[in-house]
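job 3f2a | input accepted
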Amino acid sequence: MNLNQIWKRYLFREMLKMFLLFLGCFFFLYGLIDYSLHMQDFILDKKIQIGHLITYYTAQFIKRSELLIPLALLIATLKVLFSLNRRGELIALQASGISSRTILKPLFLLGLLAVGFNLISSEYLLPSSLNRLDKFRKDHFRHSRHANRKDPVHMLTLKDRSKLIYKEEDKENHVYTDVFWVRSMDEIWHMTSLSTDPVHPKALFVDKLIRNTEGNFEKAESLDQYTFTKLQLEVDPTGKGFIPLENRKVSELFRLCLKKERLTSYEYPQALTYLLFKLSIPFLSILVIAAAAPSCLKHHRNLPILFTYTIFLFGFIAFFALMDAAVILGENLTISPYLAILLPLALLSIITSIYYRKSL
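job 3f2a | predicted structure (360 res):
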């Protein structure tokens, strides 16, 4: 698919201009609402500089691109094709022997570029952006509903999938207090404090508990000080103590799903759901163009422009709400992740394909 003809470059340029315009407007409105919600935090926290805000909203854009990009493509498709239709340019192209499907090729080229961007983002940009947002909220947001929540206990998931449970973190001294390391179902370590050094964590007043033949835990060892060599703390870019599965790269999720033994029965459906969602949702950029284009290419004396915009906007919002619900159902294993994520997209693809073929 190339742009070697003047009319193709013209359509691609018009589509690109409208796409960037609507994408910028949508994100500006989102950023304005987000800033108004957190204005008190931004004003009172003297540590927040302009650079922090730029990084924060860049990460927000990458996070919301899976929604904003197909939405901007949908509105841009309607706007460009309706304009061509009303100005008679569409009839001129068709009268010169160019089919409707050929006319739409520059639009689909932009859609393919959007698909590629979202797929690359899922692997390289989105994970780090989500981690940065989590860390930023934890460090700077103090007046939101979830800020400064005092949990009675905290849990870290370690690299070997064991659990570290502690009461609180002393950031000045870099230690966790009142710590339990659940290494396995048969081995638990308890210590009054543990340093946050990820290489050589040191503990004070350590007790090692082992499950005996009767199924009860008994103290097997007691030490005043101990340096762990097998306790590997994970680097914490989120401020949560662990990297959520939602924040993982597509390749990492794929490896985790291949090796089920590395995940618990609760974590596996979550990893599979996020993997399927991140791989499939970028193709919505192509589907919105295929769904919207046929309605704009029909020739009527009075085009139902407002009605068409309303129907497609409502349909897009409803579909995205459905996909959010599907993620929740899939990660909680209410229904199979394959069924929850792939079925709505498959049905939309089939309906769009039939409508596209019959209309053009």
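job 3f2a | DSSP finds eleven helices and six strands in the chain.
job 3f2a | closed
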